[in-house]
Specification:
This protein folds into three domains: 143 residues, 3-Layer(bba) Sandwich (FAD/NAD(P)-binding domain), CATH 3.50.50.60; 123 residues, Polyamine Oxidase, Chain A, domain 2, CATH 3.90.660; 85 residues, Guanine Nucleotide Dissociation Inhibitor, domain 1 (Orthogonal Bundle). Helix content is 36%, strand content 24%. The strands form five sheets. Strands 1, 2, 10, 11, 12, 13, 14 and 22 form an eight-stranded mixed sheet that branches. A seven-stranded mixed sheet has the order 8-7-17-18-19-16-20. Strand 3 and strand 4 form a beta hairpin.
Amino acid sequence: MSAIERDVVIIGAGASGLTAATKLRAAGLSVAVLEARDRVGGRLWTNHIDGAMLELGGQWVSPDQTALLATLEELGLDTYSRYREGDSVYVSAEGVRTRFTGDIFPVAESTAAEMERLITLLDELVEEVGVTEPWAHARAKEYDRISWSAWLAEQTDDVEARDNIALFIAAAMLTKPSHSFSLLQALLMAASAGSFTHLVEADFILDKRVVGGLQQVPIKLAEALGDDVHLSSPVRRLEWSDTGVSAEADSVTVNARYAIVAVPPNLYSRIDFQPPLPRLSHQMHQHMSLGLVIKVHAVYETPFWREDGLSATAFSPYELVHEAYDNTNHEDPRGTLVGFVSDERADEVFKLSAEERRERILTSLSHYYGEQALSPVVYYESDWGSEEWTRGAYAASFDLGGLSRYGAMQSTPVGPIFWSTSDLAAEGYQHVDGAIRKGADTAEAIIARHQA
């Protein structure tokens, strides 16, 4: 096994780690990036399945994601708008399919009023709690000890209103059951997007895509770093002291002054830290976990829903596929739908055979789009829970009480070891934008310490 010397070793070649490496090298520090997979990108992965280009992980760009937008411009990557012309579709608890326009679902007038009231209330709480230090709010512990579902039940007796509001955080973002995380965690999720309203506005949060796929961001960053990126090199052991680190991977050992761990928190325990991390760090990591979601890709000969005047935007907290969208690639004559199956519903269908699961999911899509949805020419399920070096999606969040208890220390360096991942971001939390922001901030912190 070879050994090399660098100023900084970065563990993980996702958008965050590669951004940090790029910033560090621009400042004159030498780097080595060690990636466990045989590719770069982490939870960004553009792949070709049965002749169709599919974005298996993150893919959307919203107007508030200024760090990502700046990176796309720097890398010369073009974007295009998600197709959104025509009506959206909502399916009620009774299975009634209704077409609608706008952001508020076509529910009873009283339910719509309750949804709008709750959105306004949540926007006020988001602004009050903030995004950078929600754990420092005067009522943080109180907000962190009540689950998202329990808080909603306290606010309204309208079951459909709270089911729909819950959807925007639980199934759509954290991909966990509403009873398993706190109001404070929900407020952080909304604050990271600018407001709860932004999570409701599909045309805002799912605005654009990158021509050729979002994985081009880490690919281009890695290309510029050249031989300093080492693939198929999972770090097994990280020895550290006040004077530096030694990262032992399968094919190379990197001795460096600093280390950046740029992987999801649920993977920290895959590294043998010597000496062990502080006791509170171990405790904190046990209270962070990723959710579970199946991202379903269904490609058809044509985008048939457009002929019916549908945008393909579809929602229902009562359907197996709780949301779906037109995901047709740039200038592709075929039509692609993308849908999502989250948390306990994903548990249920993973008990089925692949054939039964496909039938159940396509049947759910047909409730939105009609029988033509039953017969795609390409069908694929992105299952990040089975990915050895991810083990869930989309990002890590705390269990009840965890955010107020540990949030203030989640990004605190341990000696020469720094932490950088979208899972720890404020703005852009669990998005590529947050990964880039966190990577840049971590690089700046190391540069400042190095120059001190």
